[in-house]
Amino acid sequence: MPASNSSFTILRAARLIDGNGGPAAEQAAILLEGDSIRRIGTSETVQAPEGAPVQEFDYGDATILPGLVDSHVHLIGIGAGRAGDELVTLPDEVLTVQAAQNVRRHLYSGVTTVRDCGAKNRTTFALRQAVEMGILPSPRLVLAGRPVAIIGGHLSYFGIQATGQDECRAAVRQLIKEGADFIKITATGGSTRTSHPLRPSFDVDELSAICEEAHKFGRHAAAHCASSQGMVNVLDAGIDTIIHGVHKDPDGSDTYRPDISERIAESGVFVNPTIGASVDRIRQLEDLGDLTPEEQAELDMVRAGSEVRMDQFARMRDAGVVMSAGSDSAWGNYQMGDFQTEIEAHAMAGMSNMEAIVSATRDAARSCWIADQVGTLESGKQADVLVVEGSPLDDLGNLRKVADIFLAGERVDRQNLV
User: Fold this and answer.
1) Rounded distance, CA 233 to CA 260, Å?
2) Backbone angles phi, psi at 221, to 5 degrees
3) Alpha-carbon torsion angle 215, 331, 273, 323, nearest 10
4) With a threshold of 0.85, does the pTM exceed it?
């Protein structure tokens, strides 16, 4: 085989998980050519073209797997408990610097793609420009820019506030003009103080206008839904991803609706359940030791809510709903750089370790409409590769034991502070 001008890299390890859910390959090797994957096999079968210069890495008893895909982040978040209503009062320049720190943390932890689900003004677009200029390292960015909200609704303080079908269509067009890769909709209220968390925001005609306009321009739409009626409305409108996916009535009752799950599964809609944030908060509070009455009350509330969400997660999966792992960091108290907690939460809710990894690789990429590029290790796809010590199939905690990360075929320098 003649040599080429391409750069080649061979990675070898005890096992390889390709992200498709099948058994791990043993004594595996993968050949990277430039920014893409050329071949996957064993140490004997995977070789660079004869005479071509090649870098080789032998990781021993390690695991090669796709770079992780976090399908829900808020890059301008701080993760220190600051409410979004207060976060928005910070200058755009400060929030952009915070986003720069967050993308570095996530990348260095093994996340090679993030989908940002709402930011203030043009902060994340400015961040992407800096990344493209080589100013800072970052995972691949799938950006919504500003979320679309009703007046006073969830995230309205940094979103586009729209009323009626015409304004909803105009909002989508404006966001696409600004550079949005997808459209984030707040279909119910949420933590925003002026919103109504358990009630729908937009009506179905408005939601349909948003989804239709997004699809017309080849974009997908993802909707924050904190109640059952919110999910029904976005399903009627043609949504692509439901975020949170909470089965809850307007009076706050937790009433699981099997009919909604059946519709989600039949429609091929993804659900990004964001159940790791509660697990993270429970761990934070437990680590405090002696709790104040207020902290104990919060811990009891979060534990109870987490149990309900995990039960609903399991029921939705049983109904055939595809779960896309997304952390929702750095919102609330959940800092970036620990997507692994969301993956662990999926396993706590009933997934096998392999299924949880697939939810954070292939299925997250499918939800973000980029599965043709990333999410699995396959010939021709982008060379986004994570190498971890040991086997995450034995212990998902090994996903935190990062040995190396390759983004588009380039080894990430995790000591780089520039």
Assistant:
1) 11
2) -130, 135
3) 60
4) yes
